[in-house]
Structure formats: C-alpha cells, structure tokens
C-alpha cells in the first residue's frame, strides 16, 4: 500500500509540473516565471490546498537531486567572459561608457553593507535572530530571473545590461561562498579551513578537465551512446557534492562549484542545452513543486509577527537594491536606474537554499524558513513586472547595425529574414511599378515600396543612411550608378551585384564590394567538384566564413593558444593590413587584425563581442 501511495504522489507531482507551463501559455501569464508558477501549483496540491501529496522517500530523493542540479546550473550560468572590460565606447546619450566591472563591484559592496544595516535593524527590533544570516538572504540576487529577463528585453549585450548581469553574478558567487563560511562557523565541529580543500580539489579537477578536453581521443567518445562529456559532468557533480558533505560543507556548494568549473571549461552550446533540458525538464520542476507542497501558508498567516515580517523584509529587499543603484545616475536617467534596482531585487533559488540550510542548522525555525520562501515568491512575481514598467527598454537596448537592401529577389529575401533574426535593423526597398501585389512583410524587418530606383527617390527614403548597403536589382547599370552614388556617403560596407567585368574593376577601385551570381555559381560548382568539403562551408545554411575585427586592447600580443574562448569556431585566416597570415598556436594577435572564422552564428557572435 505504501508503494502505491508513493507512486501516486510522484505521478501527481510530475503531472502538475507538466501542466504548469501549458497553463501559463494558455492564460497568457507571461509575467510569471515558470519556477514561481510551479511553487504556486505545489501550494494548490499540497498542505496549503487540497493536500493530495504524501511526502515519501521517492519524492525526497528526486527533490534533493533537483535542488543539487539547480545549484549546478546556477554556477553554469555564470559567464566569466563578462568580467573582461573590453573596449570603452560612448553611450547612446553621448556620455562615456562606465567601467562595467568596477561599477558592478561598487554597487554590490553597497548592497552588502546596506543589507547588513537593514538586518541589524530587524535584529534589534526582535524580528530576526541572526543579523549576518539575514544579510546573506537580503543581498542575494537571482540569476535565474535576471538572465532570461535581460535576454527577453534584448539588453544582454548593452552596457547597462552587462552591469546588471555582473552585479547578479558577483552576488551569486559571493553570497554562496559566504553562506558556506557561515555554516562552517555556526555548526559545531565545522571547520572553515576544510572548505579550502574543496576549492583546491576543484582547481585540480579543472586542470584535469582542461587536459582531457584537448585530447583527440576524448572527442571521439563524445557521440553516439558514449556521450563522455555528459558522463564527465555528472561524475564531477557527484564527486564535489560528496566531497562537500564529507568536509562538513553543504552539498549545494559542491554542486555550485561543479557548475562554475564546467562554465570555466567553456562547454559547447549543445551540451549546455542538454543539461538545461534535463534539469528544467525533469528534476528541478519536482523540487519547486515540492517547495509549494511543503509550504503551510495558512499556518504562516495565523502568526501576527510573520504578517508584519514579510512586508518589512520585502521593503528591505527593495531598499537594499534601489539605493545602491543610484550610483548609475551618473550615466543614466532615473527610470533606467529604478528599473535596474527592481530587476536586481528578484531573488529565488539562493533564498530557498539559505532558508533550508538555516532551518537545518537551527539558525532559523521552520516558520521563518517558510516566510523566506514566501518572500522569494513575492519578489519574483512583482519585481520583473516593476522592471518592465519603469525601465525604458527601447532606449537602452543594444544599438543594432542598420542593413539596407535595394531590390527584392530570391537571394535578398531570405537574407533579409536571416539578418533580422541575427539582430540587424533591416530595411528592404523594392520598386515594382507594374506589379500590384505586395511583398510579404515581417515583424522582424521593414519592407518599403519605392516608385522607382531613381537616386532622388532613394535619398528621400534615407536609403544611404546606413552602415551596410546591399544593391541587388536586375539592372547592372542601375546597380553600378547607385553604388557610385552611395560611395560618397559614409557607409561602412557597400555591396553590389554586377556581372560586367569592366564595371567590377572600376567599383573595386572605389572600395565597393562586388559579387556576380554567374561567377559565384561557377566558382562554387568548381569548388564542389575539386574540394567538396571546403565548398560545404559556404553551401550549408548554419555555417560559413565571417570576418571578425580585433579592437580589444586586452588581446593585443596574445598567442592564439592562450586565447580564452573560441567555442566551435575555427580561425581560417588572419588579415593584417595587406598581409595574409595562416594561423597556428604561436600566432600573436594584434590590434586591427581581421580574423576570418567559421562556426555556428552564436559562437561567432560571442567571439565578436569578446574582441570588440
């Protein structure tokens, strides 16, 4: 009978986790994070609602594994390349760009100090017991909320987006380490110095992983049923979790450290997606649903002190983030500053972790632990909404490069859509006086119909106000004339379709890039006959050759073998002035080098961002 009950409870939890995102989509509850919705569903089916779940060993094990995997993915989310300053630019408002890392550190220090002062005030008022523990709770920031919110708002690559992300990353790292140190001091028999053994072991495993990653035989074991990379990741998690518990630390510290190490080893995107799919598709939803199942909301609100404490803690969360971000006022307007503070107030996984650990070691009771979890839920529901209400997203989004294309045909139409999806601001211009139909539009790019391709008509539509201009009508002479007119404008890159060799030579002398469909097709056919594998680089849709300029002073003089990130990109050639260099491990990069690379678009974009 006991087995039947355990299976029934597990099935109910799994079905609840399965239905949650479907219900969010069906009822258009986009403002609500999925993990928060899972906790709310847990409340409905748990002891605060219909009490359908009977806790048992199966659910305990799966919930614990979900918690461990959540901490692992929190560590994996940290992209250490954002700690590099890169080239300083001007903001869209004309002000010089702030030093991202320096400003983020200052903001977090203010957050930590203010969190301690708020915790001390709550402790003196008799509302909380340990001020240092509550400091860690108030100063936490949820990467799991910040990252998707920035991505959705297209702010990830903008300066303000990077500052917000850096603050969240620093908070994640520091509060996790301080929580581990606090537990070592607080628990009887705990030894903080044993934590050093854990980090030493982590460093050793990192170098071991780096060594094996560069071995050829390791790559041969990464496909089919072997999947050696995935096996290595799960082995690393269990080794560090087991070592953490053996040294008297929390298992989540080992899991978090495992995530950090995997992130430092720069795993390929496919592996990260697989880990995300496994975690957020199976184990983590069980953990969050069970959080709601075990939460007794009615019992909490029956206590008057809790009813007073939760609003005060929420106010403390807001003040601890809104006041420090005033530092940003030097560069940004008040709406941007306030919106940034609201997003940084979002907190979830680390508060839940702290609540569970605090209850286990006795620094807080079960009622306080439940109050903190409820506080995290409230913060995750309201702060992303407040961020979207206050933050001027359009004004701070990453400035897109403008691409304008003259002439709609079977070549330019697919390119227009692809470049729009890759973040370009795309305009397609066409003139069809004898054609009454309209070109298919798209929310990703603008289609403008012209009366003709006359220069005056193009100028009136601002066609020459662009970073990249592609001219691809069916008239050779027209393309040549438009390109020559465009050459007098400040356009970074002009590309035109011209078949006549005499016109091609003349346009190239003026720095205009020329392509010919006849010669290109002939060259591609010849390459496919003579060198099919090389030709495949150009023929496939997902990969191709791209030019990436090096303007980041930090990488000047660095050898390619020491470069921190290439992902799956390969450098085919380096152009330095008029010199063409075949790259190898000892090749030193120099400013203004132009790297010709191949790989998937996502990794090439990441490389571009790193080198800019």
UniProtKB/TrEMBL annotation:
InterPro entries in alphabetical order: Cation/H_exchanger_TM, Na+/solute_symporter_sf, NAD(P)-bd_dom_sf, RCK_C, RCK_C_sf, RCK_N
Record-linked Pfam families: Na_H_Exchanger, TrkA_C, TrkA_N
Keyword Ribosomal protein annotated: no
Regions crossing the membrane: 6-24, 31-49, 61-80, 101-125, 131-151, 163-186, 192-209, 221-241, 247-266, 278-301, 307-328, 337-357, 369-387
Intracellular or extracellular location(s): Membrane
Key words, A-Z: Antiport, Ion transport, Membrane, Transmembrane, Transmembrane helix, Transport
Highest taxon of source: Bacteria
PROSITE patterns with a match to the protein in the record: RCK_C
Family the UniProt entry places it in: Belongs to the monovalent cation:proton antiporter 2 (CPA2) transporter (TC 2.A.37) family.
Name the UniProt record assigns to this protein: Sodium:proton antiporter
Lineage: Bacteria, Bacillati, Bacillota, Bacilli, Bacillales
């Amino acid at each position: 009978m006991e087995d039947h009950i355990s299976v029934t409870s597990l099935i109910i939890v799994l079905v609840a986790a399965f239905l949650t995102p479907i219900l969010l989509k069906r009822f258009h509850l986009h403002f609500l994070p999925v993990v928060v919705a899972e906790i709310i569903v847990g409340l409905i089916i748990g002891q605060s609602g219909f009490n359908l779940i009977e806790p048992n060993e199966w659910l305990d094990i799966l919930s614990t594994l979900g918690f461990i995997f959540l901490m692992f993915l929190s560590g994996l989310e940290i992209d250490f390349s954002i700690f590099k300053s890169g080239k300083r630019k001007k903001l869209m408002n004309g002000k010089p760009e702030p030093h991202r890392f320096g400003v983020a550190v200052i903001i977090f220090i203010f957050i930590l100090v203010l969190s301690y002062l708020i915790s001390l005030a709550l402790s003196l008022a008799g509302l909380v017991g340990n001020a240092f523990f509550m400091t860690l709770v108030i100063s936490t920031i949820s990467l799991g909320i910040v990252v998707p919110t920035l991505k959705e708002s297209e702010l990830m690559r903008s300066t303000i987006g990077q500052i917000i992300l850096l603050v969240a990353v620093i908070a994640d790292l520091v509060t996790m380490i301080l929580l581990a140190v606090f537990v070592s001091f607080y628990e009887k028999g705990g030894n903080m110095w044993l934590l050093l053994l854990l980090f030493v072991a982590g460093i050793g495993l990192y170098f071991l992983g780096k060594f094996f990653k560069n071995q050829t035989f390791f790559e041969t074991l990464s496909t089919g049923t072997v999947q050696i990379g995935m096996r290595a990741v799960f082995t690393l998690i269990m080794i560090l979790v087991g070592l953490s518990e053996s040294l008297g630390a929390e298992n989540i510290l080992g899991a978090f450290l495992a995530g950090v190490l995997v992130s430092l080893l720069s795993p390929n995107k496919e592996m990260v997606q697989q880990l995300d799919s496994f975690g957020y598709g199976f184990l983590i939803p069980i953990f969050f649903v069970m959080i709601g199942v075990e939460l007794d909301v009615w019992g909490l609100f029956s206590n008057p002190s809790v009813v007073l404490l939760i609003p005060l803690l929420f106010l403390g969360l807001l003040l601890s983030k809104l006041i420090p971000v005033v530092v940003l006022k030097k560069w940004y307007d008040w709406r941007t500053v306030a919106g940034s503070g609201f997003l940084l107030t979002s907190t979830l996984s680390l508060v839940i972790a702290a609540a569970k650990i605090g209850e286990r070691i006795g620094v807080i009771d079960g009622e306080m632990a439940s109050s903190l979890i409820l506080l995290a839920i409230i913060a995750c529901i309201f702060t992303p909404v407040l961020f979207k209400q206050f933050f001027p997203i359009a004004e701070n989004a990453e400035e897109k490069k403008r691409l304008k294309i003259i002439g709609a045909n079977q070549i330019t139409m697919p390119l227009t859509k692809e470049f729009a999806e890759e973040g370009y601001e795309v305009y397609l211009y066409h003139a069809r006086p004898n054609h009454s139909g309209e070109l298919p539009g798209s929310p990703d790019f603008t289609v403008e119909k012209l009366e003709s391709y006359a220069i005056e008509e193009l100028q009136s539509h601002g066609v020459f106000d662009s970073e990249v201009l592609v001219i691809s009508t069916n008239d050779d002479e027209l393309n040549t004339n438009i390109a020559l007119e465009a050459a007098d404008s400040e356009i970074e890159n002009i590309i035109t379709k011209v078949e006549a060799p005499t016109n091609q030579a003349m346009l190239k002398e003026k720095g205009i890039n020329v392509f010919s469909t006849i010669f290109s097709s002939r060259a591609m056919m010849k390459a496919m006959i003579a060198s099919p594998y090389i030709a495949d680089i150009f023929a496939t849709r997902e990969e191709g050759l791209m030019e990436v300029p090096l303007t980041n002073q930090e990488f000047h003089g660095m050898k390619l073998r020491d470069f921190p990130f290439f992902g799956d990109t390969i450098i085919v050639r380096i152009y330095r002035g008029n010199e063409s260099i075949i790259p190898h491990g000892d090749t030193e990069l120099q400013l203004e080098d132009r790297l010709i690379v191949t790989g998937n678009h996502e990794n090439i974009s990441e490389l571009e961002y790193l080198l800019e």
